[in-house]
Every structure is written in structure tokens, then in C-alpha cells.
Amino acid sequence: MELGLAGKRAVITGATKGLGLRIARLLLAEGCDLAFCARTAAGVEEATADFAASGRRVRGWVCDVRDADAYRGFLEEAVDWLGGVDAFIPNVSAKGGLTGEAQWQANFEVDLLGAVRGMEIIGPQLVASRGAALFMVTTAAIEHFPVVQPYNVMKATLIVYAKQLSQTLGAKGVRVNCISPGSILYPGSNWEKARDANPAFFEGIRTSIPEGRLGTAEEVANVAVFLLSPAASWINGENVIIDGGQTKRVHY
């Protein structure tokens, strides 16, 4: 299938590892130019070298999304450097944690405001290009999770935010969707750590999935890039579950 991404311009936060890295690689493989950020200079340098093989225009910035001014500065520079934006993925997360109010603040600043602040700047660019945005959620946001934590709550909030944008910006030709990965295993992932630290828990999760395995980062990236592409032109305001049937609720 031709996704129609050749020559498009993408901005993604946190593209140096994990799901963000795989999404960035696939966007480049499909012919996008890419602006990205990460917190460490070493990570940005390594990813830039990795991405160079694509032959596309790529530039990385060192930026902590929790620093609102620095984050806005990165986005403005990225827009100027790319000459506009066709696809936006606020991928950075403060992850799960149980450190009290500090964790609530971290997930609010990074997971939620990272998307909100991003759309304030990138949204008009997407209107100009009739582009798309994609928010990274999680299946922990759509059903009960064994641990009560702000990560789940803030991710769930993104679903509502995306739905609202899909209506207001949708009238201007912009699509805004979410993806909710389930248990995804890749080097350095939390599930890799869980497998080593708590094998019994890991096996319980693995066997709860119909295929008896966890998903891969590449399987998530495939869906993400499709939703950002013109090939998904009639998908707007949706939260797409990517979990191999791990969640058991029925969707009507």
C-alpha cells in the first residue's frame, strides 16, 4: 500500500528510543523529513546518526518537554526548519510511578501538557497542510490496571482531548487520533525489566494474550505511521487499540 508520506514533514518528541525511535525510523523510510527532540545530547547524536541512513532531512534538538519555554522554542524552530508540518507525534511520557504528588505533576506536565502545548504551536501548521496528529495512550487507560497511578489517568485524558480536537480541527481538514499499545516487549522496555525482575507476573501477562506473546515496537509503529498518513484519511477521533487481543472488553 502506498501511504502517501513521501515528502511530508514530521515532528516527534522522544525519538531516540522505544516506540518513538521505531515510529521515527518508519516515517523516514516512508519518505518524511523529520524534526525530533530528546533530553540528552548523546541520545540526539546517536539517533541522528541512525536516521542519516534514510537519506532524508533530519535534525534533532536537546529539549526537556517539562520545560515549557524550551519545548515551545524547539517546536517553533522545528516548524521553521521544516517549512511546515504534516504530522505531529507528542510521544514523550513521564511513565508510570508512585511517588505521590510529584508523579501526578510529572505526568500532567509531560503526557498531557506535552500534547496541549504542542498542538497550540503545531495545530495551525497542520491546518495549513491538512495534516494529522497522533497521541500515544495505553491500554492501562481504558480498563482497570493493577496499580492506581497518574500515568493511566493522564493518558485517558488524552483520548478526550484528541476527540475534541478531531471535531474542532477536523472541520479544517486535520485528523487527530490516539493509539493505545498493550504489553509491548523491546530492548530497554518496562516489560523487559518485568520479565527479569518478576518472571511469574510476566508469564501471567504473556499467557493472557491470545497468541501467547507480547507485541513488538515495530507492530505499534506500523499502525502509528498508517494513521498519520493520507491512506488513513477517513479515520479521525479514534483510539486504536494495539494489543493482540490482550484487553477483553467488547467495543461497540
Q: Could you characterize the architecture of this molecule?
A:
This protein is an alpha/beta fold and 252 residues long. The chain has one domain (9-242): Rossmann fold. Helix content is 46%, strand content 14%. The protein is built from eight helices and seven strands; from the N terminus they run βαβαβαβαβαβαααβ. It has helices spanning 18-29, 41-51, 68-82, 101-129, 150-168, 190-197, 199-208, 217-228; strands at 9-13, 33-38, 58-62, 87-89, 132-136, 175-181, 239-242. The chain has a seven-stranded parallel sheet with strand order 3-2-1-4-5-6-7, sandwiched between helices. Strand 2 (33-38), helix 2 and strand 3 (58-62) form a beta-alpha-beta unit. The two termini are 28 Å apart. The relative contact order is 0.14. The model has no long low-confidence stretch (mean pLDDT 96).
- End-to-end separation: 28 Å
Our count of helices gives 8
The CATH architecture? 3-Layer(aba) Sandwich
The number of domains: 1
Summarize the main sheet: 7 strands, parallel
Query: What proportion strand?
Result: 5-15%
Shape: globular
CATH topology type: Rossmann fold
Mean pLDDT: 96
Give the number of DSSP strands: 7
Query: CATH homologous superfamily?
Result: NAD(P)-binding Rossmann-like Domain
Rg, Å, rounded? 17 Å
Lay out the secondary structure.
Elements: E1 9-13, H1 18-29, E2 33-38, H2 41-51, E3 58-62, H3 68-82, E4 87-89, H4 101-129, E5 132-136, H5 150-168, E6 175-181, H6 190-197, H7 199-208, H8 217-228, E7 239-242
Family: Belongs to the short-chain dehydrogenases/reductases (SDR) family.
InterPro entries: NAD(P)-bd_dom_sf, SDR_fam
Pfam families: adh_short_C2 (PF13561)
